[in-house]
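User: Hey, my collaborator sent me this sequence without any context and asked if I could get a structure. I don't really work with proteins. Can you help?
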Amino acid sequence: MKKISRICVIGAGSWGTSLAILLGEKGYKVSLWTRRKELADEINKKRENRQYLKNIKIPASIIATHSIKDAAENSDMVVFAVPSGFLRAIAKSFSKFIKKDAVIVHVTKGIEENSGKLMSQVLGEELRNQKIVVLSGPNHAEEVSNRLPTATVIASANSDAAHMVSRFFYMPYFKTYPHDDIIGVEICGAVKNIVAIAIGVCDGLKLGDNAKASILTLGLSEMSVIARKFGAKRETCYGLAGVGDLVATCYSHYSRNRFVGEMLAKGKSMEQIKKEMHGMVAEGVKNTKAIYMLCRSKGIETPLIAHAYKVLYEGMNLKKAISQLLEII
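Assistant: No problem. I've predicted the 3D structure and written it out in structure-token form, which is a compact way to encode the shape of the chain:
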């Protein structure tokens, strides 16, 4: 097992902060990078990230910084926890400071909008690194930071890297399972956010549990169709990174994507919703466009994703969209 003495977590949102805390509790020295100096200063002074993860103490072994060089230089492991729309640019800015033999882990759930590439492919292009690992599953930061039990998938095309990272992140409350289907894990992680928006719409319109179950079933079916089209394994879609993450995201009050759908159903605009989210990002909004375009280019029939796109980007009536989807089911 590669000796890990220094870790860099890129992104001080709720999930990046939560993972930094987990690693800090294991005794590792962690640099937590944030683009805003004032947030780094506040974390170091207050030992808390009040904007993204309130009332959770941050160990002294974690040092926040807004300096790219200070965060990444000499790090043996680099964890990317930034929104999909910013991943390429941030990876490019960090690339000259990341060691060639560093283990790269990402927890970003999405597909690049213009290229249709997976996040692991984006990192591979920018960092020229063969040890890229994705961490995914039903892992709400708020629960993990409170040490509530969960399980997660650690996937990579590099088996040694997957097993090493799996052992590295393991905690009694954070069960880790190595996996080799990185394509399936990443596609499931992107699609489930779109389904969660649709579930939020059902909640906002008060359509009941039966409608939500029907929409969720359609979403799972489309997730499986897309993943299998790109060579993913069927069991991935019906495991932790697939149906497990899908259920957690669709039904949790922590879910940002479900929140977006609920607020849309209440008549709020995306600008209003973004303000209410206080800087947090719902990946499903951008993912809807990226995955819709990808499916259209590949001739993949995905009614739920197509209707989500029409609602978000073409102004389709919400009730009409849900009614049409229920007719399809």
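In plain terms: The chain has two domains: 6-180, 190-328. You can pass these tokens on to your collaborator as they are.
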